[in-house]
């Protein structure tokens, strides 16, 4: 699983699902590694190596074993790096030296633009063998180079929702029904903060309305087509309306102390979930697993999931599978990627760890369409996320999206934790970003 994410990505621990009686289970990171390179033995048996980061769900869904049954002459070995921030520099080094690359490699959405712009010639064009129209349209475009080659097959996406604690809402005198909660924040993230002010008035002792203002900021920006770059590839984060809106809302949340001020995926953040001090979390599809894993059995049935604030859909996160041209078995690797990203396999991964498919064909499968999550009061997540996914705007990506987002998030954390004034925090963020952009 992708425990930590940079840029447009995310961190996640995912919940296991079944269609009839779904259960959320604590899935811990189980990365496996192998020193074996792809090879062919004397009998013509092939070993393919897949390099990825965090948890893509293939092990949990037992997909590599299933593929071997379908193709007895092919064995797939997975090499997993826990932290994407460690994985990506290694991938770039391998691409630059032309050595050490796996047959199939994962690429995080926050990196895909940079890879497409600077490394696309080193990857196979998947549009020659895979029908890219099967994915939600904006997912395909994220991995498409200027010459029309498609270097990555979409794995998952992160349609947005709102995860909330029903029991804490009830104690604070707020609505608890998911439709009523959705109505309360229908006007957007501004309504979300108003709901937070209501919560604060009667908040149970030691609890906070949200975990992190920076997380809310990411959710706000993720709902816009223009975020950090314009269509011409120019950095426009200083003038971006979505960045301004997200920043102002985050500053307001920090000033009114509506947030516990905990950067997501840190030890303090997981401890807060375990303690039960957080009432709401901006919730892309993969976040439900993080919450259920870290909150534990004590809070099962106390969480619920509602539609995200506002009427504009948002996406936060997602990855791709790519096939380097330098591999020994490009044809076989491409066929593996085609199979892994087909509707049936994406549905199996969703069932196993809860990450939402990017392949539109999966949305009509019963295991996705009828999916409910008992940990979250049987929230109909298949319906919620599929509806969101169909109307997510196409976002303009830039090569340094990750750097910009991480830097701004750090300064939002400083406003929350250190009391840094918004003007000073923004100045620090822009100076750091401009230096990174050169």
Would you tell me the overall average pLDDT?
Answer: 89
Radius of gyration: 21 Å
User: What portion of residues is helical?
Assistant: 25-40%
H/E element order: EEHEHEHHEHHHEHHHEHEEHHEHHHH
Largest sheet: 10 strands, mixed
Helical stretch tally: 17
Overall strand count: 10
- Proportion in β-strands: 5-15%
Give the low-confidence spans: 1-37
Short description:
By secondary structure, this protein is α/β, with parallel strands linked by helices.
Fill in the keyword field for this structure.
438 residues, alpha/beta, 10-stranded mixed β-sheet, 14% strand, disordered N terminus
Describe this structure in words.
This protein is of the alpha/beta class and 438 residues long. The protein has 17 helices and 10 strands. Strands 1, 2, 3, 4, 5, 6, 7, 8, 9 and 10 form a 10-stranded mixed β-sheet that branches. Helix 8 runs antiparallel to helix 16 and helix 9 runs parallel beside helix 16. The chain is globular, with a radius of gyration of 21 Å. The two termini are 33 Å apart. The N terminus is likely disordered.
Itemize the secondary structure elements and their pairings.
Elements: E1 39-40, E2 46-53, H1 63-70, E3 74-81, H2 84-97, E4 104-108, H3 109-119, H4 137-142, E5 153-165, H5 166-171, H6 178-184, H7 189-201, E6 208-210, H8 213-221, H9 241-255, H10 267-275, E7 278-284, H11 287-295, E8 303-307, E9 315-322, H12 330-340, H13 343-353, E10 356-357, H14 366-369, H15 381-389, H16 401-417, H17 422-437
Parallel strand pairs: 2-3, 2-4, 6-7
Antiparallel strand pairs: 1-2, 4-9, 5-7, 5-8, 5-9, 5-10
Helix pairs in contact: 8-9, 8-16, 9-16, 16-17
């Amino acid at each position: 699983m992708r425990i930590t994410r940079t840029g447009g990505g995310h961190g996640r621990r995912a919940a296991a699902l079944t269609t009839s009686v779904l259960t959320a289970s604590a899935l811990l990171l189980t990365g496996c590694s192998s020193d074996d390179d792809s090879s062919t033995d004397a009998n013509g048996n092939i070993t393919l190596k897949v390099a990825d980061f965090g948890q893509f769900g293939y092990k949990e869904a037992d997909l590599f074993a299933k593929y071997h049954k379908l193709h007895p002459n092919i064995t797939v070995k997975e090499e997993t790096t826990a932290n994407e921030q460690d994985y990506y520099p290694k991938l770039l080094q391998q691409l630059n030296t032309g050595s050490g690359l796996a047959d199939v490699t994962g690429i995080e959405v926050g990196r895909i633009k940079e890879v497409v712009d600077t490394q696309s010639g080193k990857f196979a064009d998947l549009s020659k063998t895979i029908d890219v129209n099967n994915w939600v349209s904006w997912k395909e475009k994220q991995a498409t180079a200027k010459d029309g080659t498609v270097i990555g097959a979409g794995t998952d996406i992160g349609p947005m929702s709102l995860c909330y604690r029903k029991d804490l809402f009830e104690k604070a005198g707020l609505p608890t029904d998911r439709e009523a909660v959705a109505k309360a924040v229908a006007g957007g993230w501004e309504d979300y903060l108003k709901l937070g002010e209501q919560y604060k008035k009667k908040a149970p002792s030691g609890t906070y309305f949200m975990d992190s203002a920076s997380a809310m900021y990411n959710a706000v920006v993720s709902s816009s087509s223009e975020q950090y770059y314009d269509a011409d590839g120019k950095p426009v984060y200083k003038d971006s309306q979505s960045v301004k809106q997200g920043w102002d809302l985050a500053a307001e949340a920090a000033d009114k102390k509506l947030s516990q001020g905990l950067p997501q995926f840190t030890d303090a953040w997981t401890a807060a979930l375990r303690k039960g001090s957080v009432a709401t979390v901006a919730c892309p599809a993969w976040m439900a697993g993080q919450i259920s894993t870290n909150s534990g059995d004590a809070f099962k049935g106390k969480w619920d999931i509602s539609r995200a604030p506002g009427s504009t859909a948002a996406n936060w996160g997602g990855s791709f599978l790519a096939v380097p041209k330098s591999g020994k078995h490009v044809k076989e690797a491409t066929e593996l990627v085609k199979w892994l990203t087909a509707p049936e396999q994406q549905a199996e991964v969703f069932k196993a760890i809860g990450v939402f498919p990017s392949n539109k064909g999966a949305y009509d499968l019963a295991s996705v369409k009828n999916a409910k999550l008992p940990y979250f009061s049987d929230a109909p997540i298949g319906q919620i996320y599929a509806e969101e996914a169909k109307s997510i705007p196409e976002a303009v990506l830039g090569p340094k999206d990750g750097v910009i987002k991480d830097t701004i998030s750090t300064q939002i954390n400083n406003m929350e934790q250190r009391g840094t004034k918004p003007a000073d925090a923004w100045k620090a963020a822009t100076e750091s970003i401009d230096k990174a952009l050169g």
